[in-house]
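Justification of resources, computational component.

The compute hours requested in this renewal are based largely on the per-chain cost of generating structure records like the one below. Each record pairs the submitted sequence with a full structure-token output. That output is archived, and it is also reused by downstream analysis tasks.
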Amino acid sequence: MNPTSATGPRPARVGAYRGRVLTNRRCARAAASTVLAMAICGSALAGPTSDSPPGMAVSVIRVKRECFSDVVRVTGTVVPKEEMQVRPDAEAARVTQVLVKDGDSVSNGQALARLARLQGPNAPPANFTLSAPAAGTIGRIMTQAGAMASMAGPPMFLIIVGGDFELLAEIPSTRIGKIAVGQPAKVDVVGIGVLSGRVRAVSPEINIANQTGQARISLGTDDRLKMGAFGRATVEVGTSCGASVPLSAVLFGPLGPVVQVVRDNRVETRPVPIGLLAGGNVEVKQGLNVGDLVVRRAGTFLRENDRVRPFIEDAASAER
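The structure output for this chain reads:
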């Protein structure tokens, strides 16, 4: 027997067998990897478990009941509530002495100035005293020693009767219908700060040129108030209580304002007529009930009937 022919094929068969063994092992490892990858991918594609409902997680907040104040904001100047102009009862007199200063409080009958009545070229002047016709505050002095005065001339003194001041406010014609006597107001006077006031009178006339009306807001007596000072007033004209949501929850579109309500983990879009604003919240007149869940920051990424996972924000988070 030829030794080459007897032993030559055996190594070849052994090598082939070993090759098949290695190939089978590689296939087994590859198959195991494939099964693991399919298991992982299948788990990912399967979505959340039954313990976690499917859908996008969204931040929601409960509709609450809140009262809103309807206010009208106006500007104006500080004026006396009542003023009196003081003149002498003589046709011709010279002021000899002024006895008061601007801002002084005076009583009824208190002497304001001394004057000398001129009676003729050869007659001596007749001295007399000019007195306050009412108690109040000297708002303005319009004379001085040596000046001439008469009952037909300009006033010598302006007295703020009782020392009471008001804000003479200009109000747009579109809002003056909401202003009524007795309504409370907060008046911020330049150089003083915020004072409490109340509407005392509303003019029935509208200025044709600028379409504004006038109202007088009483400020009372305050030594810091000066005629002509500028002030801004906020007049509370009414209160409305109802459903309230953050302004960020309202979407404004061609059909008007809408909110996105989450009900049974699905999105519902509801049109809502809105009312007053206060502190970042808006009054919803109808379409929502207290306790409803609305998407806090509504946006176009949510559509009608989308499935979501609502996350209710606490009060601290909502304020941020």
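Residues 251 and 299 are 7 Å apart (CA to CA). The mean pLDDT is 83.
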